[in-house]
Write a structure and sequence with these properties.
The chain is α/β, with parallel strands linked by helices. About 45% of the residues lie in helices and about 15% in strands. It has one domain: Glycerol-3-phosphate (1)-acyltransferase.
């Protein structure tokens, strides 16, 4: 039944999603060119509210749980498992006060209304996976921006999306590079659950009436520990929250 309803409701989701991207392209441009970083960021926050709100048109729901008293004015590295592209809009919106920047493929900086503009000018890192030198350079620059501006970063340490929700082993490289340039960053795991179900049949049809959750877990103080140890602890916490074998 959920798949059947998806054939009917997916066009409404797609229309609303694309309409938001098209409308906010010129809004972002005006905000960035004439009013600077703060206005541009505000426009991106609002855009992403509309993006994940479009999921509700198919009966899907987003619940973001944050019971942690995370500090303001301190850089943080949010580590999340990755289940679908729908993971991203709620993270941008609900982590907005932490100025969370994303690490993205450089290919996404072209051709996508609103998304490409934000990736170019939003302050994140756009990496070329075929060029390790460029990738490391981008991460170093992001780490320095985090340190200087007290920004945060969001990273998906699995490196690719999990199509069945099972958490893949976390990779350390990108996080280790950020910590070298911003060693005071607090590590914060986020457990994402069921977003894979919305796209379990692909982009068409979307599944319907799925309840998706994002939960911020207890932060991890670096305290001189190795990046490998820190990332492994974050992976274990996320798996435990999702009820998966450690």
């Amino acid at each position: 039944m959920r798949k059947f309803l998806g054939y009917i409701l997916t066009p409404f989701v797609a229309f609303a999603f694309m309409l938001a991207l098209i409308i906010f392209q010129p809004i972002q441009w005006v905000c960035y060119k004439f009013f600077g970083y703060a206005a541009h960021k505000k426009s991106v926050d609002i855009l992403n509210f509309f993006l994940f709100s479009s999921f509700y048109l198919a009966g899907n729901t987003v619940t973001f749980i944050d019971k942690q008293n995370l500090p303001l004015g301190r850089p943080m590295i949010f580590l999340a498992n990755h289940q679908s592209l729908s993971d991203i809009p709620p993270l941008i919106f609900y982590l907005r006060k932490y100025h969370a920047k994303f690490i993205s493929k450089i290919e996404l900086t072209k051709g996508l209304p609103s998304i490409s503009f934000n990736l170019k000018y939003g302050g994140g890192a756009n990496i070329d996976r075929k060029d390790s030198k460029q990738s490391i350079g981008e991460l170093i620059k992001l780490g320095l921006r985090m340190k200087e501006n007290k920004w945060s970063a969001v990273i998906f340490p699995e490196g690719t999306r999990s199509k069945d929700g099972i958490v893949k082993p976390f990779q350390v490289g990108g996080i280790a590079t950020l910590l070298k340039k911003c060693p005071e960053a607090l590590l914060v795991p986020i457990a994402i659950n069921n977003s894979w179900k919305m796209v379990q049949y692909g982009n068409y049809p979307l599944s319907t009436f799925e309840h998706m959750t994002w939960e911020v877990l207890e932060p991890i103080e670096p305290a001189g520990r190795s990046a490998e140890e820190l990332v492994k602890e974050a992976e274990i916490r996320i798996k435990q929250k999702l009820g998966q074998a450690v």
